[in-house]
Design a protein that fits this description.
Elements (H helix, E strand, L loop, with lengths): L2 H6 L51 H9 L3 H6 L5 H13 L4 H14 L32 H10 L1 H11 L2
Helix pairs in contact: 2-4, 4-5, 6-7
Length: 169
């Protein structure tokens, strides 16, 4: 066992923080290569690196638009390569039917390609019909002079008269 292993009881399998040459701020020192073998990450397979940006070609809406504008012969020969393409192609195929599911698919496709139709909300009510509904909590209404009676009970009539006289002017 190593001398480090005797102190902790664990054999170190990687370089620890103190063994890697670093600058004062904690960055690697100039010329230090923390991965000298160059294994792992995208160094071996740069084609698998994603840019991290959103791509319209990956969205279902994009493929709805693209497939809807294809000529019939091109659409029938189309082979999907991604899930978004497969979903869009399947929904468009289903929308050409004449059942309830076809109507739902048509609504889905038009909502995504043309935008949802404007939905007006009428909030007008008659004044005498306006009854507020409060759920979850109650706003108590105290009887008249409830607080005054409580103050009199706690302070006595003489002291309460002084205090209440100041605030009731």
């Amino acid at each position: 066992m190593d001398s480090d292993a005797t102190a902790t009881g664990v054999v170190p399998s990687t370089k620890q923080d103190g063994e890697i040459p670093r600058q004062e701020g904690g960055r690697f020192a100039t010329g230090n290569n923390a991965n000298p073998a160059g294994k792992g990450g995208f160094g071996e397979r740069p084609e698998n690196r994603a840019s991290g940006h959103w791509s319209k070609e990956d969205s279902i809406s994009y493929w709805y638009n693209k497939l809807l504008r294809m000529p019939e012969d091109e659409f029938s020969k189309f082979k999907s390569a991604t899930s978004a393409q497969r979903i869009a192609w399947t929904k468009i195929q289903a929308a050409t039917g004449s059942n309830e599911y076809a109507l739902k698919c048509t609504k889905e496709i038009t909502d995504r390609t043309e935008g949802r139709p404007r939905q007006d909300i009428d909030m007008s009510i008659e004044q005498d019909e306006a009854v507020p509904i409060i759920k979850g909590f109650v706003i108590p209404t105290l009887p008249e002079h409830f607080v005054d009676k409580d103050i009199i009970e706690q302070l006595g009539e003489k002291k309460a008269a002084e205090v209440l006289g100041r605030y009731n002017r």
